[in-house]
Amino acid sequence: MDAAKMHALACEYAHSPSEETLRAALEEALPLCALIARRFSGRGIDYEDLYQVASMACVSALKNFDAKRGLKFTTFVTPTITGTVRNYLRDKAQVLRTPRGIKEQGAQLSAAREKFLQENRREPSPRELAEALNWDVSRVLTVLSAQDASQVSSLDQQDEEGLAMGDRIPFVETGFEQAELRQDLKKALATLSTQEQQLLILRFQRQMSQREAAQELGMTQMQVSRMERRVLLALRKEMDTPQ
Q1: CB within 8 A of 104, min separation 6: which ones?
Q2: pLDDT tens for residues 191-206?
Q3: N or C: which end of the chain has fewer CB within 10 A?
Q4: Is residue 21 within 8 Å of residue 13, measured between CB atoms?
């Protein structure tokens, strides 16, 4: 992490704001975002979520940095990122302490997500959800995290019979051994979006973990978990429906 280079690139963006200069400045500052995110990890929130919050705070700091004031960028951005991450942790704790808040905000979030899915046939990013709801991105992340912690079961979690949800999906059980089943599966897969098909390839063909698949798709692990659950249930329903 080069503080001098970070400052120089932040100044360059301040003098000549563009997507290119912003990207260069952000890339140089990302190690600082990672450092701060790790400092707050281990408090019940995934590091990836903290890193995303820190990165977005860094973008905001870059856009508000006034190079003419003579302040070093690291001196300006560090408390900004730290404060944003700390507030995110605080807000999440508040949401977790108010079940009614989870239910009401979660319902709004779910409705926005379903509408986006219907219109775009892919999972929305936290920023897209924030724009749809006119929320801060940190609020979206907070509600998503709390919602998952209280409501969403992992596909890898075993049920009362000792089986994971993936074990109950026909194509996982048979391994495509029967020609008829392969044909049904092919038809069912055709109903999925490109992103949904890519997720299945990463998870079941390339044997990636949800965390690895999330990194590959540019999503959070929470989003991958929800998408995978929805897609597998949709495939099962499609394959169980008489043709």
Answers
A1: none
A2: 778 888 888 888 877 7
A3: C
A4: yes
